[in-house]
């Protein structure tokens, strides 16, 4: 049997990314900036443009624009799966990422930000359900999602056995595909969902305390849609 593969990637760069701002509201018409558009054209040769049977994107304009630029055909629109959407930042919508990160560090991953409909962990759980939903579409497939989902998967694939899920994850690069066959993809997503379901939400997250498995939080603040920090460039 020939393995069916999903090519999962983060959307291209936006003006918000360049300015270190967060956007978790799909109603905000945030498009790719000039660099993001150029990068899409550069990335096309790295993707299975011709062989992909299904293109999938979140409900965010930047994800759908990225998919459209990569497809290069107006007749082939991506399937939209809102479960893949970016986190709901609530009060922090449009604010610098580091403001949200400071709040998250203090309150922990199971607390919803003011005005938000989900916590960080609930958002990750939702995104993983969205990833499972993509496997129901014909493959091979290309999925354009957001940085946090890619970061969680990348961390999980290289994690030390027995290590706890951190609060912050290394940043996922723009437009670099993570190719995983359907069998392993379903296995990894199911394992992460079970891990989240089994986490104790009441203990271990005292204000100001962040267990990060020995990783310096200052070097791992770049998750979700924050851009590369200057020290990393």
UniProtKB/TrEMBL annotation:
Residues 216-226 have a biased composition (Polar residues). SMART domains: PGAM (SM00855). SUPFAM superfamilies: Phosphoglycerate mutase-like. It holds the Pfam family His_Phos_1. Residues 203-233 are annotated as: Disordered. InterPro entries: His_Pase_superF_clade-1, His_PPase_superfam. This is Histidine phosphatase family protein.
